Fold:
Amino acid sequence: MSIETALLTATIGEVAPRIASGELSPVALTEAMLRRIAAHDGALGSYLTVTADAALADAQRAGEEIAAGRYRGPLHGIPIALKDLVNTEGELTTCASPILKDFRPGFDAAVVERLKAAGAISLGKLALTEFALYGYHPEFKPPDNPWKAGYWAGVSSSGSGAATAASLCYASLGTDTGGSIRFPAAACGVVGIKPTFGKVSRYGVFPLADTLDHIGPMARSVGDAALMLQALEGRDPRDASTRTDAAQDYAAAAARGVQGLRIGIDRRYSTADTDPVMSEALFDALEVFARHGATIVEFDAPQLAEAAHHWMAVCAVDALIGHKDLYPTHADRYGPAFRALLEFGTTVTAVDYARATRQRQDTRALLNEMLAGLDVLACPAMPTPAGPQPDPQAVMDVHDVPALVRFSAPTNFSGHPTITVPNGFTADGLPTAMQFIGRHGDEAAIIRAGAAWEQLTDWHTRRPVL
Structure:
């Protein structure tokens, strides 16, 4: 098979050894990926900017380094892509808003520094909702879901989910404030890791809500996402929230398998206000785990959903702080959805915010208690599978938001790590997905659970036909 069909839809774990040995040229691989983007992304719309010249120059440098015996590791020479709110020195970083349509930062974000140090090659900047909320500015087209034209590709990291699933990059970066790694990963059938809050530096990443924002990898396998996370994580003094966790061996965790894995599940939480196709796919998966040696522990904690009712208040006030230099000065240049968020933020009272802060403490304590004696908790990745593309400028009623973020907001509030993995397809051919939640700083446990699932099934090997 040609490089376009066989290698571009493969995983990093499959391609990296061929680059390391010199069998596969980073230049040839990057050229092939750029041809694939040119052939397919006009319809898909996952990229806002393709930086072909810079990518080819980096690929040439990677090839020369590897030939000289200076191989940096499994990301060296691998083409990836970045959500377009991640600063890249001298390159457009627009946040999908006309307010920043000409913005070219003078420095790289911390995550870009780390990916460059690992030898990864950036192909460009990926589409997102305006400033990473849920709606698109009228000047920007929403990406399509690669599994079905005209269907939703998830919320803000939609371009990251679509491009990764469509094999227009090997992996990508997403951000997650209320589900924006998990929704696109679930909708597009890829793996997404929302790490522990502070695991990955957000320096140089435009915030949606600073106290809720996480940044993490999206990839076509758990192993690939773990490779990305290994390169990204670590303390950064420029981001005061970053942690000093001891390094974990994610490859060893992924190899541990299912035997003895302890998984917690609240069936009532996982079915309330949820499309049965999502909850049933989760319960079917747990039966597979149990048959192969996992222990499934049932519990009842309906109060976990309370976080979703307070998420919008924190997000809106934090967004006002992040946009203090732009709003209200440029209020008329925002799209309707993001402007509505900022306007809502002006109505949130100190009492509202204090109640939300108390709920964050309660949610963190509840999840810590639930995880005691377990490896991971399981729940659907989102309440419904992807549907037809909604009106990109529609403004959600504030009261409708909790139902959307019921499975995602709790861990944005608490900061616990999660991984989203595909676990089936609907009758319409759209992916379903589940997430595993782990203890603070214990990404190894969620990676183990996700990798064990991949060892038992083949959902992660499916690719959309473009």
In short: The chain has one domain: 3-461. The radius of gyration is 20 Å. The CA atoms of residues 257 and 410 lie 27 Å apart. The mean pLDDT is 97.
